[in-house]
Amino acid sequence: MIAFAYNVKNPSIELTGPNWATIQAYSVAAKPARAEAILVICRAVAESGRLLRDQPQQVGIRLFRPASRTSVCKMGSMKNRLAQATIILISVAISSGAAPAARFTQSAPADQVSARARNLHERAIVVDTHDDTTQRLIFDKSFDIGGRNKDGNIDIPRMREGGLDAIFFSIWVTGDVTGPIAVKRAFNQIDAVREAVRTHSDLALATTAADIRRAASNKKIAVLMGMEGGHMIDNDLGLLRIYATLGIRYLTLTHSINTTWADSSGDKPEHNGLTPFGKDVVRELNRLGIMVDISHVADKTFFDALEVTKAPVIASHSSCRAISNAPRNMTDEMLRALSKNGGVVMINYNAGFLSEEYRTAKRSPELNARIEAKDKLCGDNEACSIRDGDRINQEAMIKGELPKVTWEKIIEHIDHAVKVAGIDHVGLGSDFDGAVMPIGMEDVSKLPKITDALLKKGYSEQDIQKILGGNILRVMEEVERIASRSRIRSDVSRSVPF
């Protein structure tokens, strides 16, 4: 009899009613010629802790159930309903052959993650600082964030499977849309995110590091917002203050086009970095407790921001230029400067920012035509264009039309950033639902693979927890502390009689 311990918060749980859950697992014999899979489906009643066993059913894999095999499920005590139960013991009896390799997931065997990695991932607070799912909330009327979707990268079931505890939804309007139109679109996106939280009990609106920790302890997913592009403040610090009140917790100084006060990495320099007003924006961000985000900005803008800021800055979704020479990525010099500032680079999963070969590959006319045709069909629907572009480019990688980029490149960038900036200055900023994902990181449910890979590279559990979320929580707390100190000084100065 071989027993496997399994944490119930793991993605394999699907709540099917207020008191029931389905726990799925299978065991595969070591030798391929004798591989046999047994799917065990156990339903647990939360109030009594009784465990019933149903007949095996097929869920995404072919099942073989010889008469000589038996399956037994046992569940420990249950607290605060099933979602907070801690251990399930699944025992699989094998009558002959080598000991089986066990995995507790609905994914393919290639996605196997060790029990130690899953346990560590479960204990960590996992934070992703950049996701463009907001566009789906706005444009895709068929999208339900509370249900399992066949496309895209993010929804609640898959966030649960991936062990994601906190997510920053991007408030993004393309940089060539400015003025009142951009502001209106930004307000619409903020409202859409807040409505998603209001209508889904799995989600909790968060604006502080303490809110994230509280949500995690309550088994909820913390939802935060970052604004991707300084053009949306419409040159108005008062508007920036309104955004702060509504929950914006970082501002990316530019997107891919220069603003009137800051240069972008995707445009020709106009301002030699930050203008005087741009420096005022950084100061006001510090005062408000909003993180300064330097992803997308020109190198000179980055260094100007570091000169002005009193708080650590972040790169919410950037990778390493030493590996992929995209202007959006950070040079080693920038990584070292970010480390000295106390900030953190959140590694982007975009295939073009991970692989120089992919970034510089020549697209065939046929591939470009397919993408252009989809863009035309999507029209102004940004979510449609992003989703279909991701799918077409992934298919091209699989078919060999483009260089294949696999999820292990994420680990390469993490490892490089750690070596240059230090273990306290690296985190995760996927760009899910906004970019072409590498093969093997098709959606948020795959996140435990990162934890498993870092363990295999020899990273300590403490250091992995820093990368998964601890580092960004530290930066948030420091930004909040500096803002609080600024408010205290301001209150004192107002109380001094003239």
Please state the structural category.
Answer: alpha/beta
- Give the tally of β-strands: 17
- Per CATH, the superfamily of the largest domain is Metal-dependent hydrolases
As residue ranges, the low-confidence spans are 1-109
CATH topology annotation of the largest domain: TIM Barrel
CATH architecture of the largest domain: Alpha-Beta Barrel
Q: Give the termini distance in whole angstroms.
A: 82 Å
State the helicity in percent bands: 25-40%
Radius of gyration: 24 Å
Query: How many domains is the backbone divided into?
Result: 2
Number of helices: 16
Basic shape: globular
Tell me the quaternary state: single chain
Largest sheet: number of strands, sense, barrel closure? 6 strands, parallel
Mean pLDDT: 81
- Strand content bin: 15-25%
Give the CATH class of the largest domain: Alpha Beta
Characterise the protein shown here.
The structure is a single chain. The chain has 498 residues and is α/β, with parallel strands linked by helices. The protein folds into 2 domains: 2-107, no CATH class; 118-361 and 403-485, Alpha-Beta Barrel (TIM Barrel), CATH 3.20.20.140. Helix content is 39%, strand content 16%. The chain has helices spanning 115-123, 134-139, 156-161, 179-198, 209-217, 237-246, 276-288, 299-308, 332-341, 351-354, 356-360, 365-378, 382-399, 408-421, 448-456, 461-495; strands spanning 2-6, 13-15, 21-28, 40-44, 51-53, 70-75, 88-93, 101-103, 127-131, 166-171, 203-205, 221-228, 248-252, 291-293, 314-315, 344-347, 426-428. Strands 9, 10, 11, 12, 13 and 14 form a 6-stranded parallel beta sheet that branches. Helix 9 (332-341) links the parallel strand 15 (314-315) and strand 16 (344-347).
